[in-house]
Amino acid sequence: MATKTRLPDSEGQIISAAGRAARVDERLNHALAVHLSKLTPITFLERSAVTFADKAAVVYEDQQYNYAEFRRRVHRLASALRRAGIEPGDRIAYLAPNIPAMLEAHFAAPLAGAILVAINIRLNSNEIAYILNHSGAKLLVADSELASLLAPVSAQLSATRQFVIVRDTPAESPHQSPLGGPVYEDYEDFLATGEDEFEDVRLDDENDAISVNYTSGTTGKPKGVIYTHRGAYLNALGVTEMLEVQSRSNYLWIVPMFHCNGWCFPWGVTAMGATHICVRRPDPEKILEAIRKRRVTHFCGAPTVLTSLLHHPAARAYRLDHPLRAATGGSPPSPALIRDGERFGMEIVHLYGLTETYGPFTFCEWRAEWDGKELAERARIKALQGVPHVLSGTGLRVVDSQMRDVPADGRTLGEIVMRGNNVMKGYYQDPKATAEAFRGGWFHSGDLAVLHPSGYVEIRDRKKDIIISGGENISTQEVEKALCDHADVLEAAVIAVPDGKWGEVPKAYVTLKPGRETTERDILEFCRQKLAHFKCPKTVVFGPLPKTSTGKVKKFELRERDWAGYDKKVH
Amino acid sequence: MATKTRLPDSEGQIISAAGRAARVDERLNHALAVHLSKLTPITFLERSAVTFADKAAVVYEDQQYNYAEFRRRVHRLASALRRAGIEPGDRIAYLAPNIPAMLEAHFAAPLAGAILVAINIRLNSNEIAYILNHSGAKLLVADSELASLLAPVSAQLSATRQFVIVRDTPAESPHQSPLGGPVYEDYEDFLATGEDEFEDVRLDDENDAISVNYTSGTTGKPKGVIYTHRGAYLNALGVTEMLEVQSRSNYLWIVPMFHCNGWCFPWGVTAMGATHICVRRPDPEKILEAIRKRRVTHFCGAPTVLTSLLHHPAARAYRLDHPLRAATGGSPPSPALIRDGERFGMEIVHLYGLTETYGPFTFCEWRAEWDGKELAERARIKALQGVPHVLSGTGLRVVDSQMRDVPADGRTLGEIVMRGNNVMKGYYQDPKATAEAFRGGWFHSGDLAVLHPSGYVEIRDRKKDIIISGGENISTQEVEKALCDHADVLEAAVIAVPDGKWGEVPKAYVTLKPGRETTERDILEFCRQKLAHFKCPKTVVFGPLPKTSTGKVKKFELRERDWAGYDKKVH
Fold it and tell me: Please, which pLDDT band fits residue A568 given cuts at 50, 70 and 90?
């Protein structure tokens, strides 16, 4: 019952959970008219801590806590942050996998008025130091396994003075300083310095920053993408509406929370009062175990995550006995993946977005009339990036270089541009890059797409990935799709390589399915049956593909090999 | 396909449905930063006209049109309104049942920047004239069956100069002026003066008014409750989330759209791309027919509507073969109603709100742990008004006269107060009433409730309905609930009547189930077994209950009879 979390107020009066939530509301909105309240994800947790006080909020390994406890830990953390000198507008950084502390950060940072900087844990020490310095984060919370990344660069840090270590893995010795120097505090000890009820809630404007997410930065330095309270609130509602997350849902954490704040699901899943299932390392065995044991109803992950799950020996024999919806983005799901997903019993939802759009901005909203279509046709449709979700609304166009809408003919290539509440406020302390990205009053995605007569968009390539061969444009994605139709191919990446005659020609990197064998010649023959000859790769290289922490193929790495010695800029 | 709705732009270029939606977006947000778009329900229709272009948007009798056509009619109407001299900020009034023209008004009025005043069609001529004059509506759209209400008062109208008649019923003679004087235009002719694409979209601020809804005004003159674009947008998302309306849903129109703008469902159902099923008169036969033929998945209605549906002879034998969720409010559903609903195969959701809160503000959010409970216990829980829905968030308190939160003990009575984005902006041109309603920075509902330890609120009475008998408070709702537990009772209303000894005592008005008979003595005996003696009615009157157009019992009418000759103010 909620009663057990009742606390005396300043006059010693016992106030209820509902009364305490209303107090946070009053502090957030004290200067506003009665008909206005600030849009902020803070209220999601406050509401769920009343409505779902006793319900499982967070499940992690053999730990579990309910929404009342989730709120208490968040309030303690916010209170501890303020005591540690964190004031509204200050940045605090996190370096952690999808553990409960990361979820807590998504509410405690805004509650304290701080701006969350969740750093990609696959970066190297120098990259991490760059982000800490660029964001000016005063405090860093790091997982004990990752804290050692800080040791070599701790002297270079210009603003970060306080360190909190989450001792999540028991193997860690409690006496050893993982930072190799700086003084640090244990996360649970740090929480203990806070109070169950954080009183100093301040938020000037719903358009104030809630987080800064650094892009992976394949060219130049990473840029800090600013999210606002309003944008986070609205996109969180958008993504849960899109996937139909409800209070009975069990959401499995695969997409890292340091990636676009986990596509806004830390906030959305909490809003719905659903259960967060945290996993430190989401390998196929762990995912399968969670699906079985925790009856996972939703997760998000790159197609490569889905592929490795569905191709795992243990998954092949397994058939789901409950509904499961998996959202995927980054690259379109292949027909084979959709088929394998259906066999497994999961529904795959294809979505699209960028760090600059709070994660998912569009999805392939499924129409009832498509239900009865053949797999191949369903797969073709599912590969579309689709339409803006309800909260993205009308803020998407496909335009030519003069910002004119391209015709909805499924052929004319244009750039996807977006605007609205779930487009970033700008790049942190980078007005030049912001102005460039926002030219013409729209955010330029750099993704080249066609608009189908149905109104659905389909990305044909990254602007920088397009191959220009003998004056013809070749979409690397089109070639990759053709390669993936080959029965032996698991994954493929196509890049442009220099060619004396044509300028550029396509080259394919291919990973075969386990136990399969084939030849370059066979692959090329197959392509020639499916594609115009000029689109076919000239060479095929077999082997694993280099990938980013979020499962995207690092094409720039492939390109570097082939373009070494050439003048052309490596993207 | 959306292609068939493509139109040439001003330069003769063919632009797509998606391109046109983005143009509306640009006009709405032209002066805003890239990361901001105004929250307005306009974008719901624009998005659905792309995503669900070919899907049934509105079904009415043997008519049906898709979202592309719905948008076209709305744009034509907005364009016709502008041509007729309606400028942003002007009020336009409607007098119509739940026909498609009413749905169109909910998008065309805001698109043209006008403020919609949907008038209760059960009012008399003078009341209608009062609202037209108070709101200063320049134009009135009236259903031909209702237009005759205007005839006796047309000379009294101070601002309304233009009349448009919807000829929905074929019996109407086309040559007769239903207004008995004023010149009028036929609705379809009026639409024909507009263009398929309305170009002059203007909206200064998302907090500008979208509609004014006049309260039923049982005391004094009706007050005009102002809704904003932002509030309508957010509450529309709240109510669809609450009922889980999705693109495959079929929503049946029972709650009148002139009542809190149909609880915001005109906007919410459109946002989801679901299908609106319009019905002119939602009698039980019509409702049943729609449920069967149109596979209705959702509807909203007062408990009396549900009762008359479930007690209809044709419903008794009928069992649903598809999911149906019915939301009810105004008074709590009785255990018998919940049982009958379950037998029929529908899930009943209990919600609560007022005109001043855009309709539903809270609902009894169902927890999985309650699934296995006995009917009586489930019914007891379902009767709670519950918790704020996700978009209402944290904006609700139960407070004593000093605005202190009451303890969550399920016993201490306090008043429900609310604030936030789905609380009205104020009463139209009535700053005094607004200030009174908003005293202390919260909207005062006038509803007396307890807060349960679970955090759920339960209304015990309207402030003005409470009976004070010998110094004891008696909740009329508690007595009514006890009466409804009697096997022969269909409905009951309890009021205070004057008493020489006790000051006030309860008196019951009871309607029996068809074919049932019982005596006053039997009813009183039954009450004494269930309630403290002082709470039992002293008299029981049998017969039908007088009701408002929205199905609420008109207690003031009952009171008038009993309080005639007394000093006490008739509420």
Answer: very low
Is A299 in a helix, a strand, or coil? strand
Q: Are residues A248 and A144 in the same domain?
A: no
Across the range B102-114, mean pLDDT stands at 98
Which of A202, A218, A244 marks a domain boundary?
A: A202
- Residues B337 and B428 reside in one and the same domain: yes
User: Per-residue pLDDT tens for B4-44?
Assistant: 333 334 344 457 888 899 999 999 999 899 999 999 999 99
* Consecutive H or E run containing A513: none
With CA atoms as reference, the chain A residue closest to B226 would be A35
- Residue A12 confidence (pLDDT): 44
Distance (Å, whole) CA A277 – CA A98? 9
Does B269 map to a domain? no
Q: What CA–CA distance (Å, rounded) separates A70 from A76? A: 10
The reply to whether A218 falls in a domain is no
The interface residues of chain B toward chain A in range 3-32, judged by CB-CB distance below 8 A, are 3, 6, 13-19, 21-22, 24-26, 29
- State the nearest Cα–Cα gap between B253 and chain A, in angstroms: 22
Q: Identify whether B284 is part of a domain.
A: no
Residues β-bridged to residue B250: B275
Task: Report CB contact under 8 Å: B14, A50.
Answer: no
Domain that holds residue A186: 16-49+60-202
At B484 the three-state DSSP class reads helix
Angle at B371 between CA B367 and CA B374, to 5 degrees: 125
Nearest to A34 among B19, B34, B423 (CB): B423
Do residue B504 and residue B555 come from a single domain? yes
* Predicted ipTM of the assembly: 0.86
Q: Does B424 sit within 8 Å of A398, measured CB to CB?
A: no
Give the pLDDT of residue A318. Answer: 83
Backbone angles phi, psi at A452, to 5 degrees: -80, 160
Using a CB–CB cutoff of 8 Å, tell me whether A387 touches chain B.
yes
Question: Which residues have CB under 8 Å from B541's CB, separation 6+?
Answer: B507, B508, B509, B510
Residues of B in contact with A246 (CB under 8 A): 244
Regarding whether A85 and A31 lie in a shared domain, the answer is yes
- Ramachandran class of A260: left when φ > 0, alpha when ψ lies in -120 to 50, beta otherwise: left
The reported pLDDT for the residue numbered B398 is 95
Give residue A423's pLDDT: 98
B219 and B341 both lie in a single domain: no
pLDDT band at B470, cuts 50/70/90?
confident
In angstroms, the CA B394 to CA A505 distance is: 59
Interface of B with A in 174-233 (CB under 8 A): 207, 228, 231
Q: Distance between alpha carbon A197 and the CA centroid of its chain, in Å?
A: 30
The DSSP call for residue B540 is: E
Q: What is the CATH number of the domain that holds A452?
A: 3.40.50.12780
Task: Give me the half-sphere count of Cα atoms (radius 13 Å) on the Cβ side of residue B350.
Answer: 26
Out of B401, B435, B462, a domain closes at B462
If asked whether residues A422 and A553 sit together in one domain, one would say no
The residue among A5, A272, A394, A434 with the most chain B CBs within 10 A of its CB, best to mutate, is: A394
| Rounded CA separation B226/B232 (Å) | 10
Contact flag B455-A17 (C-beta cutoff 8 Å): yes
- B254 lies in a domain? no
Provide the mean pLDDT of chain B: 89
pLDDT band, very low/low/confident/very high, at B173 (cuts 50, 70, 90): low
pLDDT of res. B217:
53
State the total domains in chain A: 3
Residue A134 has pLDDT above 60, yes or no: yes
* B54 interaction partners in chain A (CB closer than 8 Å): 369
Number of helices (H), then strands (E), in chain A? 18, 28
Cross-chain residue pair A34–B407, CB shorter than 8 Å: no
Shared-domain flag, residues B204 and B107: yes
CATH of the domain at A492: 3.30.300.30
